[in-house]
Automatic annotation (TrEMBL):
Annotated GO biological process: neuropeptide signaling pathway
Oligomeric and partner information: Interacts with NCDN.
TM helices/strands, residue ranges: 41-65, 80-100, 159-182, 210-232, 253-272, 292-314
The encoding gene: MCHR1
Originating organism: Canis lupus familiaris (Dog)
Name of this chain's protein: Melanin-concentrating hormone receptor 1
Membrane-protein topology: Multi-pass membrane protein
Length: 353
């Protein structure tokens, strides 16, 4: 996705050709000069809030996990996924000030072509890498829940680290069109914008949109949904022996958090992709459509700051780490509370069986 192109203003001679800024990318409908307060105040404020909360939240996640593990963050498979999700979001959020600056400048880009390519690539890479990591998390949860014994030889920190490296590499390959076509776009008056300028918009726009949709959303959604459906079936049908209830409860907690993260991701990004596909059949979007589209972009970008709140609400382990990273002396009290909660959950599960 490309925020820059979605917010560029139309040139007076914009046309349905590769020379017109209306066709810079599959990510943006034709830009219109609308309400000044909306363009210069409301949208920058929304993106600025997302950026600030996201940087604070994801930095806190990284700090809490690393502080807990004393820099040995690769000792736990779920932590590897969590750390990398936070790093992906943080890298993207660090590029948002450039996008906000362009938005407030009515689409004009002041940072050169190299930064245009890098920021646009960071934007696209964030979405692809996040989706790939969430898919890997779902498969990991599937193995831990459905095949807890046979999967132990695969579910190792070293394997998870290798998988993460491969996913980062795959993401960089997946955004090849961005590397090739993200560039400065000349505007009337000698100014320039930043966006994805496809060589043959009439056909490339269609295929690029479908490429993004299937690779960054639809296919991962199918894999993740199938994995968690199977996980829920297994959890509802199986009964753990008394000696394994603590392990089962820990697995349930991690799985519950992973499911919530995936749900938040797909709820945040679904409106954007619905409008992306709708845009293919619209020759000239209305101003209402443009507003809806930018709202969908805002919701998608909000995903980058929501994961830390999911961890705080659903993950007791993360809450403990957060408290201990700030107040180490509370360790004994937290352990007592955790043990009491685990005992209550074990009694509840034993009654349910």
């Amino acid at each position: 996705m490309d925020l820059q192109a979605s917010l560029l203003p139309p040139g007076p001679n914009a046309s349905n050709t590769s020379e017109g800024p209306d066709n810079l990318t599959s990510a943006g409908p034709p830009r219109r000069t609308g309400n000044v307060s909306y363009i210069n105040i409301i949208m920058p404020s929304v993106f600025g809030t997302i950026c600030l909360l996201g940087i604070i939240g994801n930095s806190t996640v990284i700090f809490a996990v690393v502080k807990k593990s004393k820099l040995h963050w690769c000792s736990n498979v779920p932590d590897i996924f969590i750390i990398n999700l936070s790093v992906v979001d943080l890298l993207f959020l660090l590029g948002m000030p450039f996008m906000i600056h362009q938005l407030m400048g009515n689409g004009v880009w002041h940072f050169g072509e190299t930064m245009c390519t890098l920021i646009t690539a960071m934007d696209a890479n964030s979405q692809f890498t996040s989706t790939y990591i969430l898919t890997a998390m779902a498969i990991d949860r599937y193995l831990a829940t459905v095949h807890p014994i046979s999967s132990t030889k695969f579910r190792k920190p070293s394997v998870a680290t290798l998988v993460i490296c491969l996913l980062w590499a795959l993401s960089f390959i997946s955004i090849t069109p961005v590397w090739l076509y993200a560039r400065l776009i000349p505007f009337p008056g000698g100014t320039v914008g930043c966006g994805i300028r496809l060589p043959n918009p009439d056909t490339d726009l269609y295929w690029f949109t479908l490429y993004q949709f299937f690779l960054a959303f639809a296919l991962p959604f199918v894999v993740i949904t199938a994995a968690y459906v199977r996980i829920l079936q297994r959890m509802m049908s199986s009964v753990a022996p008394a000696s394994q209830r603590s392990i089962r409860l820990r697995t349930k907690r991690v799985t519950r958090t992973a499911i919530a993260i995936c749900l938040v991701f797909f709820v945040c990004w679904a409106p954007y992709y619905v409008l992306q596909l709708t845009q293919l059949s619209i020759s000239r979007p209305t101003l209402t459509f443009v507003y809806l589209y930018n709202a969908a972009i805002s919701l998608g970008y909000a995903n980058s700051c929501l994961n830390p709140f999911v961890y705080i609400v659903l993950c007791e382990t993360f809450r403990k780490r957060l408290v201990l990273s700030v107040k180490p002396a509370a360790q004994g009290q937290l352990r007592a509370v955790s043990n009491a909660q685990t005992a209550d959950e074990e009694r509840t599960e034993s009654k349910g069986t």
